[in-house]
Structure formats: C-alpha cells, structure tokens
Write a structure and sequence with these properties.
The chain has one helix and 13 strands. It is mostly beta strands.
Amino acid sequence: MSDKKITIGTIAAAALSLGAAEVSAADRAGVAERVQNDAFQSTRGLGLPVKMHDEVFQNAEVYTKQYGTMDVMLDDGTSLTVAPNSSITIDEYVYAGQQSAGSLSLTLTKGAVRFISGRMTSDSYKVSTQVATIGVRGTTFWLNERPDGNIEVWTIDGTVTAAPVNSTQTFTFNAPA
C-alpha cells in the first residue's frame, strides 16, 4: 500500500484536464479579457474558475457570483460583460471570418449582461431571456433579467428589438433608451 496523498490541487488539476478534454478548439467562442473574482465557466456540468486569457466555449454556462465580473471577447469582436450574480449560456456561435455568414445565440438566465455587437451582420445575433428574445442592430446595450421575471433594456448605441415570448408584438428601443 502506498503513502500517496491526494491534495485539493491534484483533484483540481484532474478536473481541469477532464473539462478541457470534453471541449474542442472548434467549440471555442472567444477569450476572457478581464476577470474579477468569482467568475466561472461550466461545460457539461463541471464549473471551473475562469482566469484572464482563458478560452470561453460554445455551449458553456458563463457565470459570476456576488463579487465576480467577466469581460469576454468573442472571435468576431463581440464583447460581453457578465455582471455580478449573472449567468449566460453561449448556445450557438459560428464565425469563420468577415467574408462568411455567422451567428451568435446566447441566453441570459440570471442577472445582467452588457453586449457590444461585433463584425457579423445585425441579423446574426439573438439574445434570449425567459420573457423575450432580443434582436441586435449595430448595438451596445445592457440587459438585466430581474428577480421578478421582467427584463430591463438600456440601449447605448444602435437599436434593440424585444419580442416577448408567446406574443406577436415586437418593441423597438433606439439609443438612447
């Protein structure tokens, strides 16, 4: 019988390598540019701390706790800021350069996110919440999913459209709004 000790660091290293093995370079969406405490990425149920310059992956839940924030720069130049106590999932991300069509679909499940669109065409972006789908047109905006289930939209540049779930109505918010 061996006297080997298993440390928390050994377990964390094994979890990191297991998590990395489950995603491929093709699943990469971007990179974490700024990270402040309590920021995580969960792929296939394994939540790991995110550090500056870590890759961020498609189909990953990106979330922060009470004192955490994270800025993610996607490969097309789209910038996402995940506020404290917030969670987004990058549902789909396809970008193969400026000469090709791309798409970004993400879901805000909790809290707030700032969104600055990148080099894809305006119809390439879709942001979903529990109560509405948000369309983006050359835009910088904040989106907040409140605890009561309502959403708040602050349009800084461009135009945002919001289509409530189970409704045929669409609301348009031109900056500043």
